[in-house]
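Why do we care about 3D structure at all? Because function follows from shape, and shape follows, mostly, from sequence. That is the central idea of this module. The next example makes it concrete: a single protein chain, its amino acid sequence, and then its structure expressed as tokens.
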Amino acid sequence: MKLAGFLVGAGVAGLGVYAFNVLTTVTGDDLLSTYLSDHCLPYVQTGETPFTDIGRTPGVYDEVEVSENLENAGAAILENNRFVAEWGEAENPNDPTSQLRVCIVEVSYTENSVEGFVVEPDGFIARYTDVIATAEPLVPEVDVLTDGPRTIGWYSADRDPFEGLRVVMVARPARVSSVMVVGDAN
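And the structure:
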């Protein structure tokens, strides 16, 4: 009888642990969507400082390389050094009188890093077109990601690809290694 009670208790506890893991697991899709919709897109469109509520500022001993070409720049280490975010303003190469806002999230190439954001390959382009559309309706340059790694861009349908808001990812099926959001600052 004691054994039966023990087994029932262990089974209930195991079910509880399993349910907790399922309900609290954050996927690469979740992270990438959050970084895009809550941080990079708002920063590029409004100048609101991104990543203030997550991550940490790189320290002296962190092996983080940030661009020296960005003004009003910032950086954050995300997810326990798995990813590095960087943002700032840069001169527009097509119009030196204007500035661009740039937000980049990429894999941190340290010993505890990962290959990138692990994403669900089915419906990848449509899913991220919807995430990006909350800011501005952009059109992807491809409908399906079939091979890779490759660069994929989302651009405005009625503008040159080097104008307005644009989102670029380096991806292959099931993985995204970096995302960059660029927009006109003025």
